[in-house]
Amino acid sequence: MRYLLWLGLVGTAYANQRKYHMTTTWLPHFAGNTLALLFPELFRALDALLSLDRRLGEAESGLWTTLRATLDQVILKNPAYVEYIAPITLAYIVSHPRFNIYRGAWAELRFLGFGLDSIPHSASAFTISSFLYDAIDALQQNLPPDSSIASVVRWIAGHATLTVGATLGLLTFLYESGEYSIHRHELQVRHNDPSQINMMWDPVDTFFDVLSNTAGWAFATLRRRR
C-alpha cells in the first residue's frame, strides 16, 4: 500500500510540474511524503550501513536501543504504519490538476465555512496525533526504569494530551507558514496572477484548517481515552 501511494505521489508531482512549471508545486511534497512512506526501508538501510549501536558509547547505545525498539514497535514492524501516513500523502494527491480540491469549483464547495480540504486536514491531524500517542506509549514501554531520560518520558506520558496537542500545533504553524511562503513565491513568479499558481492561501481558509486540525486531534484524544 505504501508503494502504491508513492506511485500516486509520483504521478501527482509529475502532473503538477507539467502544468505549473515550478518546483514548489511538487518538490517539497514529494520529498516529505517519500521520506515518510519509505522511512522503514530507509531507516533499516541507514542502521545497517552505519552500525550505530557499535559506534556509540555505552550510555548512548542504551538510548539508541530504546529508540530502535520504539521505532520497531510503531513503524518498522507495524502493519498499520501506512494508516498514519496515507491521509498525508492523499492530501497532496488530491491536488492533481484533474481533480484539485484546493482550487476551482471543488474549492468553492463549503459547509458552515468548511471546504473539501477540511477532510484531508482533519484526517491527517487524526493520524498524526494517533501516531504520536502510540509512539509515547511505545517509548514508555521500551525505556528501562533507570534510563537517564526516564523522568522526562514519564512527564510526557503523564501529559500526553498536552504534548501531542502542542506538537500538532507546532506542525500546523510550520505547515501553514510554509503554505504562505510558497503562495507568495508562486505569485511573485507568476506576476500576481492567482490563476497561474498551485498553492492557494488566505486567512479565512487557514482559520478553518486550524479548526479541522484541532478536530482531528480531539477525536484522536477521545479515541485513546475510550
Tell me what the structure shows.
- This protein has 226 residues and is mainly α.
- Helices cover 73% and strands 2% of the residues.
- The protein has a two-stranded antiparallel sheet.
- A hairpin with a 2-residue loop joins strand 1 and strand 2.
- Helix 1 packs parallel to helix 6 (81-93), helix 7 crosses helix 8 and helix 9 runs antiparallel to helix 10 (203-225).
- The longest helix has 30 residues, at 160-189.
- The chain is globular and about 60 Å long.
- The two termini are 29 Å apart.
- The model has no long low-confidence stretch (mean pLDDT 89).
Compact summary:
Helices cover 73% and strands 2% of the residues. The chain is an all-alpha fold and 226 residues long.
By DSSP (H or I, 4+ residues per run), the number of helices equals 10
Percent of residues in helices comes to over 70%
Distance between the termini: 29 Å
Please state how the strands of the largest beta sheet are arranged side by side: 1-2
User: So what's the overall shape?
Assistant: globular
Low-pLDDT regions: none
Q: Biggest sheet, open or closed, and with what strands and sense?
A: 2 strands, antiparallel
Q: Strand share of the residues?
A: under 5%
Q: Encode the helix/strand succession as letters.
A: HHHHHHEEHHHH
Topology:
Layout: H1 2-20, H2 27-37, H3 39-50, H4 52-55, H5 58-76, H6 81-93, E1 110-111, E2 114-115, H7 118-142, H8 150-158, H9 160-189, H10 203-225
Antiparallel strand pairs: 1-2
Helix pairs in contact: 1-2, 1-6, 2-6, 5-7, 6-7, 7-8, 7-9, 7-10, 8-9, 9-10
